[in-house]
Design a protein that fits this description.
Distance between the termini: 16 Å
Strand order of the largest sheet: 2-3-1-4-7
Structural class: alpha/beta
Helix content: 40-55%
Mean pLDDT: 90
Largest sheet: 5 strands, parallel
CATH superfamily of one domain: P-loop containing nucleotide triphosphate hydrolases
Number of helices: 10
CATH topology of one domain: Rossmann fold
CATH class of one domain: Alpha Beta
Low-confidence stretches: none
Length: 211
């Protein structure tokens, strides 16, 4: 099964990606991971990407597309894959469709996990990790049991209302055109991302034909 996973930061994509991978035994393909691996392995495309990045230049779509194409050609993707973070634009989506078609493949589902922006901000802001145990707490929803733990929590610098608002705005600008694109293709599966992890999991599996 070939799946694309869409959703705003904080919507729970990571958790649901594990569900999809475990159920269908397919790898999660993240463009960030692909790029880091290509740079680490010093492949020609990885070095080209590094040069653009270090120069502060815009990386051409063709280079990112090429990295994705190479990754999807690897043996572990033979029975399917889960794309996370790609495509980001309609142009990339069109390229992906054409590339897969040329190889006798196609996307099966595009899973969109939807959560209101206000709820996402509430979920993320106030989240901290205990540096001793590694456990993640939330000051409102899952507060630490003692003041000692509360006082030593470490908060990510980008888990602020200001930063998250910018990230959400960027997500909506980049992702919005993809939603009608895949809706017209009959591939979009809208998932209500609010509720317990298990409730969302059942919605995702139901949309993919499993229960």
């Amino acid at each position: 099964m070939n799946v694309i996973l869409l959703g705003p930061p904080g919507a729970g994509k990571g958790t649901q990606a594990e569900t999809i991978m475990g159920t269908y035994h397919i790898p999660q393909i993240s463009t960030g991971d692909i790029i880091r691996a290509a740079i680490k392995n010093q492949t020609p495309k990885g070095m080209e990407f590094k040069n653009y990045s270090e120069a502060g230049s815009l990386v051409p779509d063709a280079l990112v597309d090429g990295l994705v194409e190479d990754r999807l050609a690897e043996p572990d993707c033979a029975n399917g894959f889960l794309l996370d973070g790609f495509p980001r634009t309609v142009v990339q989506a069109q390229w992906l469709d054409q590339m897969l078609k040329a190889r006798g493949r196609a996307m099966d589902h595009v899973v969109l996990i939807e959560v209101d922006d206000a709820i996402i901000v509430e979920r993320i802001v106030g989240r901290g990790v205990d540096p001793i145990t590694g456990k993640i707490y939330h000051l409102k929803f899952d507060p630490p049991p003692t003041d000692d733990i509360k006082n030593r929590l470490v908060f990510r610098k980008d888990d602020t209302t200001e930063v998250l608002t910018l990230r959400l705005r960027e997500y909506h600008q980049k992702t919005a055109p993809l939603i009608p694109y895949y809706e017209r293709a009959g591939l979009l599966r809208r998932i209500d991302g609010q509720g317990s992890i298990d409730e969302v999991k059942q919605r995702v599996l139901g949309a993919l034909g499993r229960s």
